[in-house]
Amino acid sequence: MKKITYLVIAFFAIGLSAKSQDSLAQYTGKFNFPEGSIVSYVTVTAEAGKLSFSSDKGSGTLERIAVDSFAIPEYQGTGKYTRNADNKVIGVVIDVMGYHLDGVKETPAIALIERQLFLKSERKQFAIR
């Protein structure tokens, strides 16, 4: 009975860990800032249940303060994610060391494939010998 209890607790803990990683994944990506900003981009990644960032000026960690709000301890600043009407992260606002930066999330390029490529297919005939 103890083994079953430990097994259930282990699965529950693994599930919570995976859910935590998934919830952090929404914050990851590359965020670009307007030309002339002190930082041109920030790339946010999630590893081992924590968010970290790197940019052309340095790197650090993000510590959650509230939903969509994070502290940036290495630079005594804060970051807040912005969302669209579909509740998807579309940008970030960073206040750090007297600077206010508005960044836009870079969307991955999507390869468009013509529908005709899927409609055309070679028909292979098999002969039974």
Query: What portion of residues is helical?
Result: 10-25%
Category by helix and strand content:
alpha+beta
Question: How much β-strand is present in the residues?
Answer: 35-45%
Number of domains: 1
- Quote the average pLDDT: 80
Shape: globular
Q: Biggest β-sheet, characterized?
A: 8 strands, antiparallel, barrel
Rg for CA atoms: 22 Å
Q: What series of H and E elements makes up the topology?
A: HEEEEEEEEH
Kindly state the number of beta strands. Answer: 8
| CATH level-1 class | Mainly Beta
Biggest sheet, spatial arrangement of strands: 1-2-3-4-5-6-7-8
**CATH fold type:** Lipocalin
Rounded to the nearest angstrom, the distance between the terminal CA atoms is 60 Å
Task: Provide an overview of this structure.
This protein is of the alpha+beta class and 129 residues long. It has 2 helices and 8 strands, in the order H-E-E-E-E-E-E-E-E-H. The chain has an 8-stranded antiparallel beta barrel with strand order 1-2-3-4-5-6-7-8. A hairpin with a 2-residue loop joins strand 4 and strand 5. The chain is globular, with a radius of gyration of 22 Å. About 9% of the residues have low confidence.
